[in-house]
Specification:
Elements: E1 16-19, E2 34-38, H1 65-72, E3 76-81, H2 115-122, E4 128-133, H3 139-145, E5 148-151, E6 171-176, H4 179-189, E7 216-220, H5 230-245, E8 249-253, H6 258-276, H7 295-306, H8 309-322, H9 331-349, E9 354-358, H10 373-378, H11 384-389, E10 393-401, E11 404-412, H12 417-431
Parallel strand pairs: 2-3, 2-4, 7-8, 7-9
Antiparallel strand pairs: 1-3, 4-6, 5-6, 5-10, 9-11, 10-11
The protein binds glutamine.
Amino acid sequence: MSGEISFSPNDKYNAFLTTCKKAPHGSGKLAGVAVAIKDNISTKDIETTCASKILKGYVPPYNAHVIDLLKAEGAAIVGKTNMDEFGMGTTTENSGFGPTLNPCDTTRVPGGSSGGSAAAIAGGMVTMALGSDTGGSIRCPAAFCGIVGLKPSYGRVSRYGLIAYSNSLEQIGPMGKTVADVSKLMGVIAGYDRHDSTSRDKPYNHTPNAEIKGLKIGIPQEFFGEGVNPQVADVVRKAIGRLEELGATTVPCSIPSMEYALAAYYVTCTCEASSNLARFDGVRYGPAPDWRKSWHDAYQEVRSEAFGTEVRRRIMLGTFALSSGYYGRYYSKAQVARENVRADFNRIFADVDVIAGPTMPTVAFKLKEKSDPLSMYLADILTVPANLAGIPSISVPCGTSEGMPVGLQIMGRMFEDERVVDVAYAYEQEVN
Ligand code: GLN
């Protein structure tokens, strides 16, 4: 055991749902480092709720693979962080246990769905955290809170023990104060796990390297077009200019499939969610149903009461899209659109090394600012393409607009997580 762990649980932001009074830790690469864990990642003997009332009281009997890896390297698991219920949201306002506030401005949202993890870092409570990213949930809160977040390539980090929202899109990933923190955490969590059939034997043993001379960066016009706040676009363009000063060259490009990317994403994730969430019945934890009623009535009652509005909306959308006769109209079309996104990235990556643009089209919204679901979904337009294609993508702070942090997003070829980390590192070193 090493000395004191650095954890200050002065949680003014509702970043944590559970804090661990005694956080055991050992020796290793993360000896004594306090790590916060998003509450959809299973932690043995520590309550894990996905910020949903339906899982209130659930204490997993096993650890997610990533938790075993963290513990083997001496990390101290200090608590479970707030999130949008089951990962469904962009602001952490959809938590069943109250919203998280943005430490940069407490009248604003921290982004989501890994908002608690981002706020725990930005608020100085920890230096590292785990999040998960299905359509932007690591990168969005990283951008909104001014920290670093990496969505790894699909298959690079085991999903065993991640309570599933949309299996084909999501990855657990590292969040941190600096690119070096994120890289270090990635080194601990990446690699093959026989418990996850989609996991790949691609360990990450990398020390960030700031040398980017000769790097070719693709700049998609869609990332600076309609819907993207001009000031945000400006901050990001300047950041890309800094990368050019470091010896990178930029090439304009286009991702025409982005026109259908958001629709493809929302059909895919709601279909998968409707199936994944069917198992929650409130019997063993959550609100106990009244079993004097018929199974159907009890199941309906529990699920109407314990799931939040957004989760219910998505279960219904997904169930509808998958229902008999509609499959070809929605789900299979979404998969075609998804293939087109993949093909666009492959075409562009034949010519460039990375693709850069803003992480989010705006800075963090005010709390309760976005009330209709569609305008909320639109905020994900720049992050979902990487999930649809499975490619790695990092968000690194690159300045401010309206006094709020802006994120620079760097996407890379499949399994070239090291390269996106290097580009983010080069930028970070240049501005610091
Ligand atoms: N905002 C997106 C959604 O609501 C992304 C969420 C996520 O990545 N978990 O689905």
